[in-house]
Amino acid sequence: MTHSPASEWSSAFLGELIARGVTDFVVSPGSRSQSLALAALEWERASEGIITVHVVIDERSAGFRALGLALETQRPAVCIATSGSAPLHYMPALAEARHAGVPMMVISADRPSELQGVGANQTTDQSALFGGIARTWNVEAPGGEAAPDLGPLAQEMLSEALAGAPVHLNVAFREPLSGTLATPVVMPPVVPLHFEARDGVSVELEPQPGTLVIAGHGATAKAEELAVSLGAALIAEVASGARFGPHLVLSYRDVLEGPLPTPIKRVIAIGRPTLSRGVWSVLSDSAIEHISMPMRGLEASNPTRDAHVVGDVVASRPATAGEKEEWVKPWVMAGRSAQQAALDHLLPPPPDLEGAVSEDPAIRNAFATAEMTVMRRRVSRWEMALALWEATWPHDRLVLGASRMIREADTIVGSKNIPVFANRGLSGIDGTISTARGIAHAASASGASGITRVLLGDLAFLHDVGSLLREPQVEHPSRVHLFVANDGGGSIFDGLEVAQSASTEDRDRVLFTPHDVDLEALAGAYGWAYLRVVSMGELTDALGRSDSHLIIDVGLDRA
User: Do 206 and 274 sit in the same domain of this protein?
Assistant: First the structure.
């Protein structure tokens, strides 16, 4: 029997996290971190289903898996990595967490002091590995003495993480790097984790003509509630958590581009809007009164630099029906009109249903032909986004990858109170698949019975293709369907300034970045089911599939 201070310390510290409500550990393989990984497994066995260990080979993918788990559960998952370059791969996910206010915790194993600065293998300075992105706590290598009380350290780190700031624990270990525990682990009483209250002052506002609530990333249903109580029109981005309700302005881009229904005098930005230049222009207008409520951990939307940044907003009284008729109705009606015009342009007229039951064979044949024409038409980006939106319900999850498709969805989809996620902290395409898999796992563990559908571009898919890897012999009831908008490259750049400033050849090579990857072969290699979709009928059929892990390759025109 080998005694290892590394194992005793690891078991004790993870136990303190578990006692405070941590349930998920995302482990990547490595020698120096073996005591942490083995301790996580011991706690998983002892918990009888409360604790889950997720084994992910690539630390970059592991970081985004933890991010997805935290997005769904509202509590940090803990990433565990060995020393050297391994923990550096968490940086993209930590940076997203920092700018999105998502709780996240990383534990890296390190070499002890005697191996620092002497040319030892797999050794670098990990004492402040993530700079300003994540605060680091450094722990000296545990010795043979009894482990200190690790509860205060666990509590301090969790409190900071729950406030929306990712945290990093760097702990040195000496050999033996693992051993048999002196006493078996026993599940402690668990205190459920909860997010800290929003920072900042609470302000009380009087209903006022010309008030506009803008809900960005992280806004939640709070934005919709405030708009209704304050008698304000509501602009809600597709991933804001507030795209529903009687005050919602549909097709808000078109409404902002035209003559405004009524003058804007006061804007309340909740969360962090990121999807529209029209909204950013409103937020940048110094002639308007600006109030910014960034929500937990988010940076305030304050391009004028004179917004009143607050922790909460409440209405001094409910707006009257007359006030809503005057201030809100013009915006809502303008939005409905704009969206109907967009839908009329997008969707073909439906065939006359009376033709299906006509006694005239020619009329019935004409109906069948029209119906087939509708179903056989090629999928467009708008229709793809609309179809996924309409197929998603509260027991499902919808994850929108960054870049073009989230903007397409934001442009066309309607009002619906469903769980929508997107990595808009830094709006990167990296980690989309892994984030979605974390969300899906946590959702199914909580009892949600639906499908996690992911709408992403082909470049976002290829960027995170390693996250398709599944742990063998480990099954979970979660279902993940990846709808890949495959136009052969990054077509979002075709609509940006570079289209006028560079030659087609140069733009294609370094921005559009065409590829000829066989997505079906990738799906087979990683054990995912695969469908190729071109027509709307095929897309409709794909949305009815119930596979556990499915890739739907949707062929789109570049234009």
Answer: yes
Which of 245, 250, 284, 246 is CA-nearest to residue 264? 284
Residue 153 resides in a domain: yes
Find the domain containing 359 and state its range.
Answer: 347-375
Kindly report which listed range (58-62, 179-183, 274-278, 540-544) carries the lowest average pLDDT score.
179-183
For residues 554 and 379, the answer to whether their CB atoms sit within 8 Å is yes
- Our CA angle for 220, 225, 208, nearest 5°, is 125
Predicted TM-score of the model (pTM): 0.94
CB contact at 8 A, 515 and 489: yes
pLDDT 10s digits, 507-540: 888 887 889 999 999 999 999 999 999 999 999 9
Using the predicted structure, report yes or no on whether residue 115 has a pLDDT greater than 90.
no
For residue 202, report the phi and psi dihedrals to the nearest 5 degrees. Answer: -100, 130
Do 299 and 166 share a domain, yes or no? no
pLDDT digits (tens, 9 = 90+) for 31-64: 999 999 999 999 999 998 999 999 999 999 999 9
Distances from the Cα of 175 to the Cα of 5, 33, 137, 544, angstroms = 9, 11, 21, 54
Distance of CA 206 to the CA centre of its chain: 34
Task: Dump pLDDT digits (tens) for 336-392.
Answer: 999 999 999 888 777 667 766 677 777 666 666 666 666 678 999 999 999 999 999
Question: Residues 271, 251: contact at Cβ < 8 Å?
Answer: no
Give CA 545 to chain center in angstroms: 23
Q: What 8-state DSSP symbol labels residue 140?
A: P
Q: How far apart are CA 467 and CA 411, in angstroms?
A: 29
For residues 546 and 452, the answer to whether their CB atoms sit within 8 Å is no
On whether residue 60 sits in a domain, the answer given is yes
CATH number at residue 213: 3.40.50.1220
Q: In this structure, are residues 318 and 247 in contact, taking their beta carbons and an 8 Å threshold?
A: no
Is there a domain that residue 9 lies in? yes
| Domain harbouring 142, CATH code | 3.40.50.970
* Strand partners of residue 294: none
